[in-house]
Amino acid sequence: MSEKTVDPFAHLRILTMKQVSEITSYTPQHIYRLIRAGKFPQRIRIGENRVGWRLADIEAWSTARPMAWAPPSAPESRVT
Questions:
Q1: SS3 44
Q2: Which residues contact 51 (CB under 8 A, 6 or more apart)?
Q3: Full-model pTM
């Protein structure tokens, strides 16, 4: 049995474009389109030629998005 460890610094974690793309299932091109449209968390500069996104910002953005699909409902029982 292993106990899941909670990282107290998870809110400070910085993600790369590859990680953000994997989490959101969006291509980098689409992510940049959303940024230009003001519909995605802003990136932060972490070096002269390097940017990233805060994990907390991506998680907050993701949970605030409406569900695009509804799970299938249970089949209705028909009484004849």
A1: strand
A2: 17, 43, 44, 45
A3: 0.70
Query: Helical H runs in the chain?
Result: 17-24, 28-36, 55-64
Question: Exposed, middle or buried: residue 20 (CB in 10 Å: 0-12, 13-18, 19+)?
Answer: buried
Edge-to-edge strand ranges of the sheet holding 50-54: 14-15, 50-54, 44-47
Name the pLDDT band for 5 (thresholds 50, 70, 90).
confident
Structure tokens at 11: 């809110």
Neighbouring residues of 24: CB distance < 8 A, sequence distance ≥ 6: 31, 58, 62
